[in-house]
Amino acid sequence: MQDTKTVTVSGSAVASDRTMKRSRLTRTWKGIFQNWELYIFIAPALIYFLLFCYGPMYGIQIAFKTFIPTKGITGSPWVGFDHFDRFFHSYYFWDLLWNTLSISLYSLAVGFPIPIILALAFNEVRNGFFKKLAQTVTYAPHFISMVVMVGMIITFLSPSTGIVIHIIEGLGFTAPDFLTDPRWFKTMYVLSDVWQSAGWGTIIYLAALSAVDPGLHEAAIIDGASRFQRVRHINIPTLVPTMTILIILSMGSLLGVGFEKILLLQNPLNMTSSDVISTFVYRSGLVSAQYSFSTAIGLFNSVINAVLLIVVNQVVRRVSENSLW
Amino acid sequence: MLSGVKESGRDKIFLAFNYIYVFLAFLIVFYPLVYMVSASISDPKLVGSGEMWLWPRGITFDGYKRVFENANIWVGYGNTVVYTLVGTAINLAVTLPAAYALSRKDFVGRNLFMGLFMVTMFFGGGLVPTYLLVKKLHLVNTIWAIVLPSAASIWNIIVARTFFQSTLPSELQEAAQIDGCTNMRLFLRIVLPLSMPIIAVMALFYGVGNWNSYFSALIYLNDTSKYPLQLVLRQILVLQEMAAQGGGAIDSSSAEALNNKAEIAALVKYAVIIVATVPVIAIYPFLQRYFVQGVMIGSVKG
């Protein structure tokens, strides 16, 4: 209907351009109208994300205010950057930042290569019972809850009764007090993480390896390449895109280290090396109810994360073809 | 593909090292799991002294008996089952329709919605603003504080969307529309029955996540009677609040009894770890295929 009307009016180039725009517009409206049910499909998710993900973003403003519960978020008085100032000048600022960054980088340095090596090794094992068993077992710890995982760490490492302590002493060494010695906290955190997630982490690499063209390997065999050479020159290059994406993603959560686990592993004795930004946010915000101060620290944390992600992604996009967007 | 090729000497050495490496990895993961099971049914004295190191010794089922007698654990188990079922149902009801809509190329505004959702992967309000919101909505200390703030995960929506895009041919939808089939009917009668694998994957991913989560319960629930299993476990395993409980018959005045209490507490710990983990670990090998599939679908468009 609309189309016939516009066609009769049109004559000049400008008008026909307008017609095209309008007909594209009507087509859009027609598309929306025809598929109106799809908007009902997406409505629950939309409501969820707006309410529970964007909703809290509105509350971020209390980082620049002094939150008074009776006055609410909007009614509380503005204080500018006071909370940030207090945080940056506090005596614990550098400790928190150092702990957060060092735990992240430590787990990245150890936890990133191990699944790759394991996946390459799995890939060289002949399909059969042993491969299946090894994979099933190494994937299993992924399903152990964080609370149980930390419970296991505590029982295995508890002085005088833990099995790890017995093993270390059986080998003739004196076992350190892993649970309370600050020097051991990071290693304990990183190694237990590797135990729990390295197996599961291989899946994504095995998926990439299964896509390797068998012709490449056949050609390499004919050329006399050894197994090791084929792994080195065919399999590893295949994994590079996956590695790049995972590295970028982990950069985006550099300051968001395994908060739930650290919170459970913390005790007053290892605090000097186990307190990270997110656990500090939890303690100051929800335990001691310093809502505004804690929101400011949380905001600092998420801004750094977002900036790191964007910067790393840009850099990677410049130097290679793989990037998140 | 390599069956016809004879392995050369250096390849044999490489393969041998490779098998040793995989076997070691297997052993490192497997040993603690076996040890846990053995320790849960062994004499706590032998476990504590390190004499029990692989196979159960001095078999006793006292740990399990105490776990099953502990009312808190049962209440927690019940709560967790309810939270997991309700939570996972909500997760699926939110994720699947949204993922299907986003998979449709003729859905006007899909990029806008997708962009809106993806932003939340990288930036959020943070802990305190989220807490204040949940409080303001009067959800604190109800089941809704546990299930609603985690009603959907953008990662799972992307996985499901990728599945719909890659497995459902667009001809299917066109044919159905020519026949006058509405989108609702198309989704319920054709799309969902064809998408059982992804429904299984989503239910498992969300289900395990719900079963294992403790943090939202920690911050939003005040009543111990509403605690999920993971919080009860936290009291027993991490805060070590079990030692004084359950040993009513023991005379606590003597040193031996105190020692006994500590041993029983240790025994209970192993038993409780097994009881809490068994449902997930027991079903996992049968469903491993689905889990792996889920990760692989996700990796296609990571």
Characterise the protein shown here.
The complex is a heterodimer of chains A (325) and B (302). With 325 residues, chain A is mainly α. Chain A folds into two domains: 2-66, no CATH class; 82-319, Orthogonal Bundle (MetI-like fold). Helix content of chain A is 74%, strand content 0%. Chain A has helices spanning 2-9, 13-34, 36-59, 72-75, 82-88, 93-111, 113-124, 129-139, 146-157, 163-170, 182-210, 214-222, 227-252, 259-265, 271-274, 277-287, 291-319. The model of chain B is unreliable at 243-254 (pLDDT under 50). Chain B folds into two domains: 1-60, no CATH class; 70-302, MetI-like fold (Orthogonal Bundle). Chain B starts with 8 loop residues before the first helix and ends with a helix. Chain B is built from 14 helices and no strands. Chain B has 302 residues and is mainly alpha-helical. The radius of gyration of chain B is 25 Å and the shape is globular. Classes of the chains: A mainly alpha (325), B mainly alpha (302).
CATH superfamily of the largest domain in chain B: MetI-like
Largest interface: A-B, 96 and 100 residues
Structural class of chain B: mainly alpha
| Order of H and E elements of chain B | HHHHHHHHHHHHHH
User: Helices and strands of chain A: which structural class?
Assistant: mainly alpha
Radius of gyration of chain A: 28 Å
Helix percent of chain B reads over 70%
Q: What's the CATH architecture name of the largest domain in chain A?
A: Orthogonal Bundle
Mean pLDDT of chain B equals 85
SSE series of chain A: HHHHHHHHHHHHHHHHH
Keywords (chain A): Cell membrane, Membrane, Transmembrane, Transmembrane helix, Transport
Pfam families (chain A): BPD_transp_1
GO biological process, one term (chain A): transmembrane transport
Protein name (chain A): Carbohydrate ABC transporter membrane protein 1 (CUT1 family)
